Amino acid sequence: MASTKHDLKRDEIIATAAKMFAAQGYAGTTIQDIAAEIGVTGGALYYYVKSKEELAYLVLRRAGVNLSTMLEQIRELDYDPQEKLRLFVQGHLHTIMGDRAVFDVALSQRSHFPDQDLEIIIADERAYQDSVANLISSVPALRVGASESKILAHALLDMLNGTIRWYRPDGRHSLEKIGETLHSLFVKGALVEGSTAGVSDSDQVATQPNAAPMIEQIKSDSAPPPAGAYSQAVRHGNMLYISGQTPRLASGVRLMDEPFSSQVRHVLENLERIAVSGGGSLRQAVMVTVYLRDMSNAPEFDRIYSSFLDTSRPPARVIVPSNLTVGEVEATAVIAV
User: Fold this and answer.
1) Which stretches hold the DNA-binding feature (predicted)?
2) pLDDT tens digits, residue range 169-180?
């Protein structure tokens, strides 16, 4: 019983630490802050954890374990692969939203955490990504090889994880509806004509007869390298999907202290460089999603953004308020090439 009480208290400490890291940032949160929030002394807290660094590791580890447990349960079900893929999309969304503070920190603040035991976290992430890739490749209708399934796994996870920035429980759409939409979007983007076992007619799209989908990872040396397990961009057919760009140099240096206008230009220039590497340009954008920490900056963003576009046919766009921790602005784009 004592062990159970100890574990419950430790879980409470991890959850509280995650909430405070999300609200105040890792650097801005002390062990004393966490202890005060829980209602114990700093000394008492050290009975459960050795340091703030260990707490950071435990937050990341908890995120990985929760996802891996969910996926393993789905893999053990006696369902066809297509249904397992649908359940995975729903399961991933409900897992990250069910422990939102933990995943908010894991997805947005990991670069601020110490490197302590980071190899364990990276190994967990790669194992999870490989499991998702295996699930994708097991769907007969998708007909993708090992290398393509890994790229698709990165794209799917990036799409699912991105919802944590904008989903609101009191919003227009339920989490189930969002999951259905994202699953359908993913399957339609990856599906090929010719083998549709387990997939409804509404999930089919026309391509060249018996042709495998052309999925290509795009890299640009003139744009910042990925800061996590994702590609700068992925090209599928004549569509280029560019991952979220933040104010960073190609060297990876973050520009969080730059003026807002400068951060915007760096973000848009990064999108443009990646678009060019993929054979396109922001002037060919069909959809742009923008995340702002302060929505009052929207007019200034729009002023600068307009100079990167073909204003005679501006793309669809949405601006989402977000508690960004890596700058004032982030943006992603879909380009027709």
Assistant:
1) 30-49
2) 888 888 888 989
